[in-house]
Design goal:
The complex is a heterodimer of chains A (229) and B (174). Chain A is of the alpha/beta class and 229 residues long. Chain A is built from 8 helices and 10 strands. In chain A, β1 and β2 form a beta hairpin. Helices cover 66% and strands 7% of the residues of chain B. Classes of the chains: A alpha/beta (229), B mainly alpha (174).
Chain lengths: 229, 174
């Protein structure tokens, strides 16, 4: 059964057609690589799927933790951001951590925003930092960490709320290959342990090799390789 | 892989008998393609004939072959020469995938289909290697990385060709 399902998505930016009748299905707990050349529309697809960007046409359906089918494309801004905060986690290439907060506070932030007490939020955050092998930087600010450590902190933050889906857009794009592989290993291992699905946008085949299957986007159209065969 | 040189290299650590050599080779280099006993003994007899190894006594005990072999000075020189000579880089100019793409276009079939099928097959192999790497030691990681980097290069080519397939179609149909 699908967890997230997009059909007939189209999105234009001015005269540029970023998506043209694209579709994708994500099942619970699977790691799906969204591949394709630069400018093919893979990031736009991720943004539409995650409810960050409303498509011009098409629908996105999500099955929430109560098992109810919810149409993201029919929600208002407030409902979509609530869903993003409670059910989704995000890892981008860089720039997602708040520079003024320590790494621990960064990871605890989504829990604090949901109303959890500081002590409990920080305990959970510390556990996640340890799972991602970066508990050593808990009291440092993001600017004081290496790129690889920063990404692990970002992954901890994405996972701390127990999301159903992690959206990762080129999460290793700014890392060297050794650090990139470590980050991918930790991200996919943690996601599999917690049962979270991962939608992984990447143009790097070695990063895509951490997925269970791939969806190829070309000229704004997506092609689900597994389902197509 | 030059099995003779690999065995000579292993013998530099000290004399060994054939079975021991096979085990050492398989452990380090033969995870995916272990040596046959026949290969070990035929290689050793060639090395012996060429003066690169010498017999160094017979070990007491059970087993098929307990004769020990030691590397000679000529053998050490041979290993040195082999290590310092670069492997010839593959020119990669005979390319079945390119031929398939062109023939698909010439026959009016879908070249994109050929490329997509190949991409999926490559990624399946890359996933297996990635999993093996995660469970393996450093030797496993390096062996798998070598394969992964090569497969990645193929995939980049597949992607580039997919992006130019219309242009190629126009050229081959001219």
């Amino acid at each position: 059964m699908s967890l997230l399902r997009a059909e007939g998505l189209s999105k234009s930016f001015g005269k540029t057609h970023a998506l043209e009748d694209a579709g994708i299905t994500i099942r619970a707990g699977e790691v799906v690589a969204v591949m394709g050349p630069s400018g093919s529309g893979k990031s736009t697809l991720l943004h539409c799927l995650a409810g960050i960007l409303p498509p011009d046409r098409g629908t996105v359906h999500y099955r929430d933790h109560f098992g109810s089918d919810r149409e993201l494309t029919a929600m208002n801004d407030g409902e979509r951001s609530e869903l993003r905060r409670t059910e989704f986690g995000f890892v981008f290439q860089f720039g997602q951590l708040v520079p003024e907060l320590t790494c621990l506070e960064n990871v605890a932030l989504p829990l604090r925003l949901s109303g959890m007490k500081r002590k409990n939020a920080e305990r959970a955050a510390r556990d996640w930092l340890a799972r991602l092998e970066v508990d050593g930087v808990a009291d440092q600010r993001p600017g004081e960490t290496s790129g690889g450590q920063g990404q692990r902190v970002a992954i901890a933050r994405a996972l701390v709320t127990g999301p159903k889906v992690i959206f990762a857009d080129e999460p290793t794009g700014a890392l060297d290959s050794l650090n990139g592989e470590r980050v991918m290993h930790l991200l996919t291992t943690a996601a599999r342990e917690t049962g979270a699905a991962v939608v992984l946008v990447t143009h790097e085949p070695r990063v895509a090799a951490y997925s269970d299957r791939e969806v190829v986007v070309r000229d704004g159209r997506s092609r689900d390789v597994e389902f197509a065969r | 892989m030059s099995i003779g040189h690999a065995l000579l290299g292993l013998l530099e650590g000290g004399p060994r008998h054939g079975y021991d050599l096979k085990r050492a080779y398989d452990e380090r280099f033969g995870q995916d393609r272990p040596l046959h006993y026949g290969q070990v003994y035929s290689t050793l007899s060639r090395l012996l004939k060429n003066g690169l190894v010498t017999e160094a006594g017979v070990e007491a005990g059970d087993g098929p072959e307990r004769k020990r072999y030691a590397i000679t000075d000529a053998g050490v020189t041979d290993v040195e020469r082999w290590l310092s000579t670069p492997e010839k880089p593959e020119p990669y100019l005979q390319n079945t995938l390119y031929a398939k793409v062109v023939l698909a276009l010439l026959s009016g079939r879908s070249a994109t289909e050929v490329l997509d099928t190949q991409r999926a097959a490559h990624l399946t192999t890359m996933r297996e290697l990635t999993r093996r790497k995660a469970d393996g030691d450093l030797a496993d990681q390096l062996i798998c990385d070598f394969a992964l980097f090569h497969l990645e290069a193929d995939l980049r080519w597949l992607e580039l060709t997919a992006a130019r397939v219309d242009q190629l179609a126009a050229e081959v149909m001219r």
